[in-house]
Specification:
Blueprint: H1 3-12, H2 19-25, H3 37-58, H4 64-75, H5 77-87, H6 97-101, H7 108-126, H8 128-138, H9 155-164, E1 172-179, E2 186-193, E3 198-204, H10 207-227
Antiparallel strand pairs: 1-2, 2-3
Helix pairs in contact: 2-7, 3-4, 3-7, 3-8, 5-7, 7-8, 9-10
Length: 228
């Protein structure tokens, strides 16, 4: 095993029973077909649940909408990127030559995705409690407080709150296509609001950015419908 990965496990405070999961979590699609994206998909959900539980415990007097806004700020790309840098992930990721040359080790979208993949890997390796404890350790130095609810809403959060306020199901996001070389991809993402029979699409330089663009397009559609 890569010596740097041994040190990473010490920082994570988790030694993998199945090292292949760690290997996959740190591998970009430009390096190998056995890459982190499926683990990232899983880790995204585990992260959201663990952060939701953390906020439920710490901010017991806050309403659901405020908690949603705080969670959105805690799991957004910028926050995950910072946590990844603090964890030393740039030195651990395996990238193809093209992605390396284009600065992939410093790209916020990749570092955020790898962190989610690691959370997913820990979940598969040792269960939810271990993954939850990892998330709590990652956020232990983050100042989580009620004032975070006043920060601007991102399109995904705004759309979810709009739908929940009308007792509708939350939107579903799906990557329709990926375009471009592995080191410079764009993601075409569809946002579906089943209760209204609406679908909109957006394109971004990462899956997250594509989801935000699709959510923004959906919000614009809803605004146009309200104006007519």
């Amino acid at each position: 095993m890569n010596p740097g990965w041994l040190a990473l496990q010490q920082r994570l405070q988790h030694v993998f029973s199945n090292p292949d999961l760690l290997d996959q979590a740190l591998t970009h699609r430009s390096f190998s077909a056995d890459h982190y994206e499926r683990l990232e998909f899983l880790g995204d959900s585990v992260l959201n649940l663990a952060v939701s539980d953390l906020l439920y415990q710490r901010l017991s007097l806050m309403a659901e909408g405020e908690l949603s806004r705080i969670r959105a700020n805690l799991v957004k790309q910028e926050t995950l990127h910072q946590l990844s840098v603090e964890l030393g992930l740039p030195a651990c990721i395996r990238l193809g030559e093209g992605e390396m040359r284009s600065g992939g080790k410093k790209r916020p979208s990749i570092l955020a995705d790898v962190l989610e993949a690691l959370i997913g890997a820990v979940y598969l390796d040792a269960g939810f409690i271990a993954a939850q404890q990892l998330v709590h350790r990652l956020y232990r130095n983050v100042d989580i407080n009620p004032t975070m609810a006043a920060l601007g809403k991102d399109p995904k959060t705004e759309l979810q709150e709009w739908l929940q306020g009308r007792k509708m199901k939350i939107p579903q996001y799906r990557v329709v296509a990926t375009m471009g070389a592995a080191h410079q991809q764009s993601f075409d993402v569809e946002c579906e609001v089943a209760d209204l029979g609406l679908c909109e699409r957006g394109i971004g330089g990462s899956r997250r950015a594509g989801e935000q663009a699709a959510a923004a397009a959906m919000l614009q559609t809803l605004k146009n419908r309200a104006d007519t």
